[in-house]
Structures are given as C-alpha cells and as structure tokens.
Amino acid sequence: MYKGAIKSRKKRKEKKREVFAMVAEFVPVQELGKSLKEVPKNYIAPEDKIPVVNEPGKSVPVVDLCDFDLSPEQHERVVHEIATASSEWGFFQVINHGIDVAKPQKASRDFFELPKEEKLKYAAKEYGFKSDGYGSKISNADDAVQLWRDFLFLCTSPKRNLDNWPAQPPEYKEAMSGLADDFLMLAKKVLGFLSEGVGLPTDYFEKCFGIPNQSILTNYYPGCPEPDKVLGFMPHSDFGGLTLLLQDGVPGLQVLKNNTWVVVEPIPGAITINISDLLELMSNGRYRSVIHRVQVNASRPRMSIACNYSCSFDSGVAPAPELIDEEHPQLYKPVKFGDYVQEVVKKGPTGKSYMLINHDSKPEYMLFQKH
Ligand code: OGA
Ligand code: NI
C-alpha cells in the first residue's frame, strides 16, 4: 500500500475517534438544568444593557391570512402589511395560515421528553449544522459561550434522509415531514407577497432562490437556575432567505428595534416569519434581516421550531436590478451563499457586513455590538 493511502486511512481513523469523542462528551443542557443551582462558567453570556419591552401592543405586527381565501382588497392588504412589517421590523406573525402546527409541536416535545439515552442515539456527528442530529454545543472552541439550549436539526429540502430522523415518538417522522412540506408552500406564498410588495412579479424572489435549501431546527430551552446570566440564543440575524418559526406558549424570543429588545408575543398557533440576510440583500435593503435573541426562564422549558428557506450553497445571489436606482443605490454585492455562510460562522453576527458594498455606510441595525 502506498504512503498516501496509509496516511489517509490514519486520518480517517483519527476523524472517527474525534467524532466519537464529541458525541461522548456532549451533555444536554436539559440534564444540567435538572441538578445545578448555579450555571457553569462557560454558559455565562456577556452582559447586555439594552432594555427589554414586553407589551403585546408594542410587539411585531400580526397579519391575518384568512386561510388564503382572499378577495382582491384583502390580498392588497396582506401585501401591504407584510411589506411594511418586513421593512420596519423584519418580523411579523401570521394567523389563519391553514397549517396544522399542533401535531409537529407535540411530536417534537415528546422527542425532547424521551430519556437521554434514546435521544443520544441521534447525536449530531459534526458541529455547524451540516447534517441531521441532536446536539447542544455549536462549537468546541474553549472560549465559546455555550447556549442554554439543546437542538434537533433536520435537513428537509432538497433531500430528506428519514432514516436519520428520530424513530421515537412513532409519529415524529410523518409530523415533521408534513410540517416541512407545509412550510415550503407557505414560504413560497410569502415570497410572492414580498415580491409584489416591492413592485416585482409574484414569482420573482422564489425564482431567485431556485431549488430551495430548507432545514428545520427545533430548539429546546430548559428552565435555568440563573436565567439572567445565560442566553438561549445569542443575538444574531438568520443567514438564510426566510425563517418560519413556531413558538410554544412560553415567551423568550426578542427582536432588536430602536435599541430595545421587543418580546415577540407567543400567540397560540401563529407562525412567526422573519426576513433573513439573503432577502435583505436581494431586496437591496428594502426588507431587513433584524437581530434577535432568546432569553430563558427559571422554571418553564420553552420549545421553538425554526425552519429556514434559502438557496443551495453554490448559488449566487444579487440585489434585484429593478430595486437599484438613483434614490436607492446598490447597498450589497453579489455573494455565493456558501461563502457567505462560512463568513458568518467565522465572524458571528458582524459577518453580515461581508455583503455590504460600502463599509462606512452600515445601517444602524447592522451595528450590533455585544456589551
Ligand atoms: C433561530 C432563532 C428563535 C427561537 O432558530 O434562528 O432565532 O425562538 N430561534 O427559538
Ligand atoms: Ni434566528
């Protein structure tokens, strides 16, 4: 056997050992939360002095989709409300969307309530959301602040490998696959409203994305003995195109607006939708991908199901030429989605500046600094 082959076999063996070590050392936060009175040091988040607003009347707009039985006037209202919310907040909630959310929510909660040993059968083999799996840490770096959260990540489009998905509870695969299909349809409809909202043909943004890359990230935030010291999700904007999210009845998600954290009110059955980075770029900044985070609480576990709709990693995206003129100069440069994701993973929330043309003219919502 020649040297190269021996070397690469050795490498593969090492890699296998590494993967094995990662899975073995993974302690779900759900287990930590049961026994501790104080949070471990590596979970303590940097202090943040931005005030929190928690008043339903001051939260993100709610849009009634009337089960898509829309008269021309109602259609116009929906387009207007979604476009306004997406430029002022980057977030909105939809009600009467016609999707059964109870089944996937119950199946997901039942998964997280299984014994640790059963869940660990599905432990993610790699960091960085590259493949299906259950996990908690997103990085193995010594100085990385760990999140007070466990997750289950599923790739849902263009391919679904149902063999990797949890076999327990028995209805899990069907419920989540159904949700992925429903979310693909809803995302396409919302992209239609968003295209019309900036005066473009209905299928404009959908065509820009091409064959969608879709994934579902179920986040489970256990109760925490010192909730003010940790974060369930660090401040970030989503790097895909559009995010559809199911909250349960427990508040926790907060959106940055005028330098305050605004709590996204949990409305039973509603779907929270937010513009993500690629759509901000494609719309030349008309729609905003806004920073958000998740706080946890002392006693009530919280679960969310976040579904990301974007393009394939080797596709390029660019601002719509129709949305560039004298009044609206081009703010972003074309990027290859895969390169962009790498940049964001490397640099954190400020990785987003990679797509800006003029680095001196960062819009205020891109200037988020950790305090
Ligand atoms: C996300 C996210 C919010 C939540 O998954 O990107 O921001 O409420 N989740 O869990
Ligand atoms: Ni997010």
Record the SSE blueprint:
Blueprint: H1 3-25, H2 29-35, E1 52-53, E2 62-64, H3 72-88, E3 91-95, H4 102-112, H5 116-120, E4 133-135, E5 150-157, H6 172-197, H7 204-209, E6 213-221, E7 233-236, E8 242-247, E9 253-257, E10 260-263, E11 271-275, H8 277-282, E12 292-294, E13 302-310, E14 316-317, E15 335-336, H9 337-347
Parallel strand pairs: 1-10, 2-3
Antiparallel strand pairs: 3-11, 4-5, 5-6, 6-13, 7-12, 8-11, 8-13, 9-10, 9-12, 14-15
Bound molecules: N-oxalylglycine and nickel (II) ion.
The site of nickel (II) ion has 3 residues, from loops.
Strand content: 15-25%
Strand order of the largest sheet: 2-3-11-8-13-6-5-4
Distance between the termini: 56 Å
Q: Are any ligands bound, and if so which? A: N-oxalylglycine, nickel (II) ion
CATH topology (level 3) name: Jelly Rolls
Q: What is the total tally of β strands?
A: 15
Determine the mean pLDDT: 89
Number of helices: 9
Tally of discrete structural domains: 1
Structural class assignment: alpha+beta
> What top-tier CATH class fits best?
Mainly Beta
Cα-atom radius of gyration: 21 Å
Major β-sheet profile = 8 strands, mixed
Q: Mind telling me the CATH superfamily name?
A: B-lactam Antibiotic, Isopenicillin N Synthase, Chain
Assembly status: single chain
- Spans of at least 5 consecutive residues whose pLDDT stays below 50 are 16-24, 367-371
Helix and strand sequence: HHEEHEHHEEHHEEEEEEHEEEEH
Shape designation? globular
Question: Helix coverage percent of residues?
Answer: 25-40%
Keywords: Iron, Metal-binding, Oxidoreductase
GO molecular function: metal ion binding; oxidoreductase activity
InterPro entries: DIOX_N, IPNS-like_FE2OG_OXY, IPNS-like_sf, Oxoglu/Fe-dep_dioxygenase_dom, Plant_2OG-oxidoreductases
Organism: Selaginella moellendorffii (Spikemoss)
